[in-house]
Write a structure and sequence with these properties.
The protein is an alpha/beta fold. The chain is built from 8 helices and 14 strands. It folds into 2 domains: 84 residues, Alpha-Beta Plaits; 193 residues, Rossmann fold (3-Layer(aba) Sandwich). The protein has a 7-stranded mixed sheet with strand order 10-9-8-11-12-14-13, sandwiched between helices. A 4-stranded antiparallel sheet has the order 2-3-1-4, with helices on one face. Strand 5 and strand 6 form a beta hairpin. The protein is globular. 41% of the residues are buried. The protein binds S-adenosylmethionine (SAM).
């Protein structure tokens, strides 16, 4: 039997352009995009950053390559066999994502410091290992809101591995409803919820914003701006009066666009936190 063949779009760029190109690759349907630069184990190319975007099929990869246009230095490559898909596990180490929560891969040991809360799980191929600033920024806002004691239920839209909901549940929030359009992510979140003992407190659903018709005083969505802006009405409608909306997956350059979209939905901007080129935004509904 022949081995599976996975298409990759490889982009060579400089640090100033990297985040914008990463966003474009995600919008073109990349399943995941690995960033290689001076700080990663596998270094970036001669221009400083190499983005490696994986696609589920060749046609989609070719379309993404064409969308990038001739001004972007990009090429199509294939990897054969699927052992590489789990290669990231070698590099995923325990990661402190908030002042008290440490994400610990299920297969590693970690000696907690006093006061540490451990999230021991295996996200599989779902987004949400705690390594990306969009996750840590959102997790810190979710933690702060949970600790305020004002909320009973988190709606986690675009839950990926379930990491944001798990942070809230770990801090004692009574319940969460989470959705993702990616079935594999939801399956992984279901398994991890069971492993963490949260199965009774989280309702995980495959689907987009329609899959969660409920409203709540606490809503989080770490999804790229390209989804959050056109769906502002649907996302904002889930926030109860007096409630809080945490948005992440946003580049600092997109701040005004997000502000305009959510202020138009009757929300006020209450806080912005940033790391590198990424920001998370907290909106309140009066
Ligand atoms: C950046 S990841 C965030 C995962 C996790 N919440 C975290 O903070 O690490 C975004 C997730 O949103 C999902 N997604 C994208 N568009 C969506 C939509 N319209 N409705 C629900 N989920 C969506 C993707 O499949 C992906 O798992």
């Amino acid at each position: 039997m022949s081995e599976p063949n996975f298409p990759l779009v490889i982009v060579e760029t400089d640090p100033a352009e990297a985040d914008a190109l990463l966003g474009r690759l995600s919008m073109s349907g990349a399943e995941c995009v690995e960033t290689r630069d001076a700080t990663t184990l596998t270094k970036g190319g001669p221009r400083g950053v190499t983005l490696v975007a994986s696609f589920s099929d060749e046609a989609l990869a070719r379309e993404a390559l064409a969308d990038l246009g001739p001004s972007v230095e990009a090429r199509l490559e294939f990897v054969v066999g699927d052992a590489w898909r789990d290669g990231w596990k070698e590099h995923w180490k325990p990661t402190r994502i908030t002042s008290s929560v440490v994400v610990v891969p299920s297969w590693t040991e970690y000696e907690p410091l006093p006061g540490d809360l451990l999230l021991r799980f295996d996200p599989g191929r779902a987004f949400g290992t705690g390594q990306h600033p969009s996750t840590t920024l959102a997790a810190q806002m979710v933690e702060r809101q949970t600790l305020s004691g004002r909320h009973k239920l988190l709606l986690d839209l675009g839950c990926g591995s379930g990491i944001l909901a798990f942070v809230a549940l770990l801090h004692g929030l009574p319940g969460a409803i989470a959705c993702d359009i990616d079935q594999e992510s939801v399956e992984s979140a279901v398994e991890n919820a069971a492993m963490l003992g949260f199965a009774e407190r989280i309702d995980l659903r495959v689907g987009g914003f329609d899959a969660v018709p409920e409203t709540s005083s606490l809503v989080a969505a770490n999804i790229e701006a390209g989804v959050l802006v056109p769906n502002a009405a649907a996302v904002a409608s889930k926030v109860a009066p007096g409630g809080v909306l945490i948005l992440s997956g946003i580049l600092a350059t997109q701040r005004a666009m997000l502000t305009d979209a959510y202020v138009a939905q009757g929300m006020t901007l209450a806080d912005v936190a940033g790391e590198g080129d990424w920001i998370a935004m907290e909106f309140h509904r009066p």
